[in-house]
């Protein structure tokens, strides 16, 4: 195993070439509702159990089921109110389990990207052929159900192999949400293609804030506003990206939805913000800034040889 995965080059934040988003906007803002499906009794993975508690975990299963039967609808109505489209981090198996949610998202012109088949089936232990089959099935299945060619990927339960990023680039994916190294997009070092690391977030992800950090709803709203204000200020020098990753079984609870609306109202009230989808950010970046970034890293003498997990280049 290498000391560094070599998936991207170190690239200091200051004095980078300026990014300007469409319309002269300073901050590209997107929302990622994770529409997930958790199997009640998933196949056993020797590297990680499907549920934290021993089976049967009826509590964890039913809590997440609440998100698919109640929470998503409440969240969709709220985003409609502020003219915001979601970029859906989709457990592709949900196409079969809850087609009514998919139809509602298509009607709203929301984007879909792959979050694996189920959030209870992990990439750990997959060989290259198995992982390739999962990725190719995601492309075919989402396109058949929605008409969209997916361009983004978030690995199921954030689990990867050393082949994940090369397989995404090989299949003409434009962005991955699995790296957390920056507040701007950056090229990922793959053997083929033009894959970028899209700023997602663990810091303002409701799984972290409501789970690990046990924040109150109003505290979470305040964190979102301060996170936004800082990135907007820095976007004056070079365009930044903010994503709010969400899980309906958490953020859409009745006592949490109003504080979350307060944060959305704050964000929507700024004209310097490009409220968009991850695919549109990726396309703009690839068309205008991908090559510029590669050239700037090289000009600073920061480019390292090889690609991700390329042991021969270490």
TrEMBL record:
<comment type="function">
    <text>Is involved in generating a small heat-stable compound (Nod), an acylated oligomer of N-acetylglucosamine, that stimulates mitosis in various plant protoplasts.</text>
</comment>
<protein>
    <recommendedName>
        <fullName>Chitooligosaccharide deacetylase</fullName>
    </recommendedName>
</protein>
<dbReference type="InterPro" id="IPR011330">
    <property type="entry name" value="Glyco_hydro/deAcase_b/a-brl"/>
</dbReference>
<dbReference type="InterPro" id="IPR002509">
    <property type="entry name" value="NODB_dom"/>
</dbReference>
<dbReference type="GO" id="GO:0016810">
    <property type="term" value="F:hydrolase activity, acting on carbon-nitrogen (but not peptide) bonds"/>
</dbReference>
<feature type="domain" description="NodB homology">
    <location>
        <begin position="69"/>
        <end position="171"/>
    </location>
</feature>
<dbReference type="Pfam" id="PF01522">
    <property type="entry name" value="Polysacc_deac_1"/>
</dbReference>
<dbReference type="GO" id="GO:0005975">
    <property type="term" value="P:carbohydrate metabolic process"/>
</dbReference>
<comment type="similarity">
    <text>Belongs to the polysaccharide deacetylase family.</text>
</comment>
């Amino acid at each position: 195993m290498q000391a560094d995965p070599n998936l991207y080059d170190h690239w200091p934040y200051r004095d980078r070439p300026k990014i300007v988003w469409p319309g002269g906007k300073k901050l590209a803002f997107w929302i990622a509702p994770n529409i997930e499906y958790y199997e009640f009794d998933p196949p056993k993975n020797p590297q990680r159990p499907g549920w934290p508690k021993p089976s049967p975990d009826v509590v964890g299963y039913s809590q997440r089921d609440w998100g698919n039967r109640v929470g998503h609808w409440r969240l969709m109505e709220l985003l409609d109110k502020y003219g915001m489209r979601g970029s859906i981090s989709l457990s592709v198996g949900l196409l079969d389990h809850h087609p009514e949610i998919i139809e509602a998202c298509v009607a709203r012109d929301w984007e879909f990207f792959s979050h694996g088949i189920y959030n209870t089936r992990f990439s750990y232990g997959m060989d290259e052929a198995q992982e390739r089959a999962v990725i190719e099935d995601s492309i075919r299945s989402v396109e058949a159900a929605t008409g969209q060619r997916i361009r983004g990927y978030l690995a199921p339960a954030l689990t990867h192999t050393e082949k994940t990023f090369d397989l995404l680039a090989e299949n003409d994916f434009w962005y991955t949400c699995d790296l957390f190294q920056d507040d701007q997009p950056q090229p990922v070092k793959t053997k083929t293609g033009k894959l970028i690391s899209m700023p997602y977030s663990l810091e303002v992800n409701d799984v972290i804030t409501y789970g690990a950090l046990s924040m109150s709803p109003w505290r979470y709203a305040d964190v979102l506003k301060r996170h936004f204000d800082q990135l907007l200020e820095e976007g004056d020098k070079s365009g930044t990206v903010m994503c709010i990753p969400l899980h309906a079984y958490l953020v859409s609870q009745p006592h949490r939805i109003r504080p979350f609306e307060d944060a959305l109202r704050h964000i929507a009230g700024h004209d310097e913000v490009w409220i968009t989808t991850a695919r549109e950010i990726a396309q703009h970046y690839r068309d205008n800034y991908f090559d510029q970034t590669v050239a700037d890293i090289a000009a600073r003498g920061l480019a390292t040889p090889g690609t991700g997990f390329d042991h021969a280049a270490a």
